[in-house]
Amino acid sequence: MANTLQELRPASTAVEKDDFVIPLIDFGPFFSGTPSDKHAVALSVTTAFKTSGFLYLKNHGVPPSVVSQAFSASAKFFNRSQEQKDGLGWTTPQSNRGYIATGREKLAPLEETSGINELRGTAPDLKETMEIGREGIEDLPNRWPDHLDDEGKDFKETMLSFFDTCKTLHRHIMSAIALGMNLPEHFFDEYVDAGDNNLRLLHYPSVRKEVFQDNPNQVRAGEHSDYGSITLLFQDRHGGLQVRTPNGSFVDATPIADTIVINAGDLLARWSNDTIKSTRHRVVEPPKLPAQDSDADSLESHPSRYSIAYFCNPNFDKLIEVLPGTYGEDIQVDKKYPDITAGDYLVQRLSATI
Ligand SMILES: O=C(O)CCC(=O)C(=O)O
Ligand SMILES: [Fe+2]
């Protein structure tokens, strides 16, 4: 049995502050290792989700060239005129597709969404995003720029392919979670095969440093937890992502080349009867650079930052019932949540922030 302390220990540590650790996990053996290697990876992944709620993944099977192609198509998209982007605007939480201009969405913790309009006014998120949903849903078209020009056609092709690549990785990670929770490896397959996921391209425009000096509440993206099952986050090298530790302080989730930051969302926490944690995070002014890059520190503005978040969800029509093994008389834990369909849960959450 692979359940020894040694194998529970993740490969290495990516982020550490006080007792809070975000591991860097090598996913390679999950694909090609022995059954016991695979089990060890699964336990590392699940342990990370149960403790910090976050992990960094390497050897995840998404080639660096595929990631850089997605980043380059994203940068070209945000470089379009405001008029073209507004012409592809986001409309409703039900559709959750299209372009969202700076200041429209204000991410906030669930219990604070009532004050959201006030926050939107004083310190709007300094970001613009493009939301891409599952392709081919009747009445919910993606807002592609393919009718604009060839670059728009390339954008569509790149993003559809990236969506599928991420969808496959989602399935593998859910298999790892299943094994790590003593469920059959393919337990979640029927919950994730539809790919009701959301690909969000993010652009944090270049911003003058005095904006942060003048307003201590100013952030690039407000503190929040994600809504779905897991999020695959690809970040560029600029930094600014921070994760909240249990004592309420924040720790930098510093970019590590060729890794994906993966965090659990609220619906997975609920599904797991809160054995898995959905941890709050935010994006702030980038941290000061190391001495050798100090030239950039003397500039008046921070450069643009790009990131790509792939929000994974269970199929919208699936009923989410608290997972077996996370409650019951034998472990003396109550079932904390009633059943809800994934789609109903997610539309409720999205409606609160826009
Ligand atoms: O841009 C990032 O690094 C994080 C974005 C994020 O957390 C989100 O969009 O939910
Ligand atoms: Fe997030």
TrEMBL record:
GO terms for molecular function: metal ion binding; oxidoreductase activity. The keyword Flavoprotein does not apply. Residues 203-314 form the Fe2OG dioxygenase domain. One of its GO terms (biological process) is small molecule biosynthetic process. Pfam families: 2OG-FeII_Oxy, DIOX_N. The keyword Oxidoreductase applies. InterPro entries: DIOX_N (IPR026992), IPNS-like_FE2OG_OXY (IPR044861), IPNS-like_sf (IPR027443), Iron_ascorbate_oxido_reductase (IPR050231), Oxoglu/Fe-dep_dioxygenase_dom (IPR005123). SUPFAM superfamilies: Clavaminate synthase-like. Keywords: Iron, Metal-binding, Oxidoreductase. Belongs to the iron/ascorbate-dependent oxidoreductase family. This is Fe2OG dioxygenase domain-containing protein. It comes from Penicillium chermesinum.
